[in-house]
Design a protein that fits this description.
- The protein is of the alpha+beta class.
- It contains one helix and three strands; from the N terminus they run ββαβ.
- Strands 1-2-3 form a three-stranded mixed beta sheet, covered by helices on one side.
- The relative contact order is 0.24.
- The mean pLDDT is about 90.
Length: about 80
């Protein structure tokens, strides 16, 4: 299985996720520094779409995951100080 790599992705892993019914689905979790909040002035729809499309294409080619989840790095989750 090849790894998902993209210039806008800092890291990516496939994680199993069990649903309420007990079925397991593999999710490609892509960590990025892109701002993913549409309400943000720094949100770049074209770059988010580019990364999302690349991840979806990787899934279709490798069949290694069922879905994609884009997230920010944990250090980007801290609230700015007033």
């Amino acid at each position: 299985m090849s790894e998902f790599m993209h210039p806008l992705a800092r890291e990516a892993h496939v994680w199993p996720s069990a649903g309420l019914s007990g079925t397991v689905r593999n999710i490609l979790v892509v960590i990025t520094t892109l701002d993913l909040r549409k309400s943000s002035k720094r949100y770049k729809a074209d770059k988010v779409e580019l990364l999302s499309d690349a991840a979806q294409t990787w899934i279709e080619e490798t069949k290694s995951a069922d879905e994609v989840l884009l997230i920010n790095r944990p250090r980007d989750w801290t609230q700015p100080k007033p």
